[in-house]
Amino acid sequence: MKCILFFFFAILGTISISNGQTIAPFNSLWKYFKGTQEASSPVDYWKEMNFDDSSWNVSVAPFYYGETVSGGTLIPDMQNQYSTLFSVKTL
Questions:
Q1: Where are the domains of the chain?
Q2: Which of 29, 57, 62, 78 could form a disulfide with 9 if both were Cys (CB 3.0 to 4.6 A apart)?
Q3: What one-character-per-residue DSSP string does the chain give?
Q4: Cα angle vertex 76, ends 34, 30, to 5°?
Q5: In whole angstroms, what is the distance from residue 40 CA to residue 27 CA?
Q6: Nearest to 89 by CA among 28, 33, 10
Q7: CA triplet 86, 20, 60: central angle to 5 degrees?
Q8: CA distances (Å), origin 48, targets 30, 35, 40, 75
């Protein structure tokens, strides 16, 4: 199952759902797309189960910039360039 999540890992770190199951653990692999433009056309298509994300980058959570974080993926060009990081994970 592909679970589409959109958020900043640097702020949220690990995310848990209500029954305590962690769905975004540190060092888990994620596909991501830098928000320098829309992630798809039409703009919401990237949220669909059949969207082809094979060209997206793959790296580990958390994603961050402008600070030091133990582990994860530094996104050095994000600051003052774009404000969105689209991310998807297959569960």
A1: 2-90
A2: 62
A3: -EEEEES-HHHH-S-B-TTS-BSS-TT-EEEEEETTS-SSSSTTGGGSTT---TTSEEEESPEE-SS--SSSEE-TT-TTT-S-EEEEEE-
A4: 45
A5: 26
A6: 28
A7: 35
A8: 16, 18, 10, 25
Rg of the chain, C-alpha, whole Å: 13
Pairing status of strand 57-60 against strand 2-6: unpaired
Longest alpha-carbon distance in the chain: 37
- Per the CB < 8 A criterion, the answer to whether 75 and 85 are in contact is yes
**Residue 31: both structure tokens together:** 């596909």
Per-residue pLDDT of the chain (91 residues; tens, 9 = 90+): 444 444 444 334 455 455 666 667 788 899 999 999 999 999 999 988 899 999 999 999 888 888 877 888 999 999 889 989 999 887 6
